[in-house]
Design brief:
Length: about 280
């Protein structure tokens, strides 16, 4: 399991490109027939990817719960959010099977002892993108689709940021301890996300960019508003955003992204807006 430590904004502004990518970028989330796991000390968030081909994969494949998490099994004191970015598959949680098509989400509550991943067709494997946060209460495991998500339309063509936000694991849809997840899909010809930008001091966030066309990039901006930094990101790469950091991107084409949040609260609108002219 890859472990990332918290970064002080006073230190981060001195990072060069290599160190910035080493601290915050998750370069390969999906590995065939394997489970990747990155543990961030920022709000103790775990970011994982599972891509089963012919094998049935176990959530704990590359995690030693006792050594890495101080528990006897992965979700003993954690909750888990899953969004499928690939072909159809099935997630089995304590013996109960949940079919997940593309962009379906599954929330799994704490104290779930076993989580397994399968793909229906190895030639079109499921790609399970996951975020896990510490949890103090057990809530019901629930499957969410785009049709049952809370849908929010924002932006315009004039500002190149017309987009649809699907709030999948969100207080408007279900109860969780602190985890929120969803996806944002930009319209054709639109390239800016989450702009005008913001920070939220009480929550960290992780972005995963997907549906980035071949030979295209998304430039992800982070850092304090007066000390912006950028990371060039490719399709299906993720990036960790501390609570003190802005988090927005601009692509060379339209694209989509998964956002995942954890921290002090789950109020989606709890953010500190930054004026465009204040960015440096």
């Amino acid at each position: 399991m890859d472990v990332r430590y918290g970064a002080n904004p006073k230190d981060a502004k001195h990072y060069d490109t290599t160190q910035l990518r080493t601290e915050f970028l998750l370069e390969q989330v999906f590995v065939p027939d394997d489970v990747t796991a990155v543990y961030s000390h920022i709000d103790r968030v775990l970011t994982l990817g599972a891509m089963p081909l012919t094998a049935t994969l176990d959530l704990q494949k590359n995690v030693d719960p006792e050594k890495d998490l101080g528990v006897s099994y992965f979700l003993e004191r954690r909750e888990l959010g899953i969004i499928n970015l690939g072909g159809p598959g099935t997630v089995i949680a304590d013996g109960h099977a949940y079919p997940l098509n593309r962009l379906n989400a599954l929330y799994i509550g704490k104290e779930t002892r076993e989580v397994l991943f399968k793909s229906d067709d190895p030639s079109q494997p499921a790609k399970y993108y996951m975020t896990s946060a510490p949890a103090h209460t057990r809530f019901e495991t629930k499957l969410i689709t785009l049709e049952t998500a809370n849908k929010v339309e924002l932006g315009s063509f004039e500002t190149s940021n017309k987009r649809v936000i699907y709030q999948l694991i969100h207080p408007a849809v279900l109860e969780t301890c602190q985890l929120s997840m969803g996806c944002t899909i930009l319209d054709t010809g639109c390239v800016w996300n989450s702009m005008p930008c913001h920070t939220h001091e009480r929550r960290m966030e992780v972005y995963l960019y997907f549906d980035v066309p071949e030979d295209n990039l998304v430039f992800h901006y982070m850092g304090q508003p007066q000390e912006l930094r950028s990371i060039a990101m490719q399709n299906e790469q993720a990036v960790i955003s501390p609570s003190w950091s802005v988090h927005f991107g601009c692509g060379t084409s339209n694209y989509s992204f998964i956002w995942a949040m954890a921290g002090e609260n789950r109020t989606f609108t709890d953010m500190d807006h930054i004026k465009m002219m204040d960015l440096r």
